[in-house]
Amino acid sequence: QKKRRAATARRQHLKSAMLQLAATEIEKEAAAKEVEKQNYLAEHCPPLSLPGSMQELQDLCRKLHAKIESVDEDRYDTEMKLQKTNKELEDLSLKLFDLKGKFKRPPLRRVRMSADAMLRALLGSKHKVCMDLRANLKQVKKEDTEKEKDLRDVGDWRKNIEEKSGMEGRKKMFEAGE
């Protein structure tokens, strides 16, 4: 137990010594950053000397406004470049994710959809595309045959029951429905 206590005390002492060293390093880094900042400002921003006359003061203001505009343009350009690269990175990461195949593809269900609805879903609601294929067909008037006239004239359902029975009758009923 004495050895354990000694090892624990030594570990705590080493930990406190490391924390003290880290704190001094952080202080040194902060001081170095401050000195670097002062040097940069002294190099790039000379001290401002205000002229005495009104004309010189207006010229100085114009120069400052021109500098501000150029800096603002540069800032805007860099922001646009940053946004563009961020978008490219996002797209590339999505492509990479797709290539890795980490996601599960959901099972596809069969959906009944008309051609108009499908085009509307693909192109969005902005585009109004009509795929009515029957609209472009030539209209043909159906000529009444004597047989059809007879069937219409017959009021008794028992006379044409044999015609409608079986598959041929169903087919005729289906064709007549269209």
Structural class from helices and strands? Answer: mainly alpha
Categorize the overall geometry.
elongated
Report the uncertain regions.
none
Roughly what is the average pLDDT, rounded to an integer? Answer: 79
Provide the β-strand percentage band: under 5%
Query: How can the largest sheet be summarized?
Result: none
Helicity, as a percent range: 55-70%
Order of helices and strands: HHHHHH
Note the total helix count: 6
Count of extended strands: 0
N-to-C terminal Cα separation, in Å?
Answer: 99 Å
Please state the CA-atom Rg, rounded to the nearest Å.
44 Å
GO molecular function: actin binding
Keywords: Acetylation, Actin-binding, Coiled coil, Muscle protein
Protein name: Troponin I, fast skeletal muscle
InterPro entries: Troponin, Troponin_I, Troponin_sf
TL;DR of this structure?
The protein is 69% helix and 0% strand. It has 178 residues and is mainly alpha-helical. Among the domains are: 1-46; 54-102.
Overall description:
With 178 residues, this protein is an all-alpha fold. Among the domains are: 1-46; 54-102. 69% of the residues lie in helices and 0% in strands. The chain contains 6 helices and no strands. The chain has helices at 2-44, 54-100, 115-123, 146-153, 161-164, 166-177. The longest helix is centred in the middle third of the chain and has 47 residues, at 54-100. The protein is elongated and about 110 Å long. The mean pLDDT is 79.
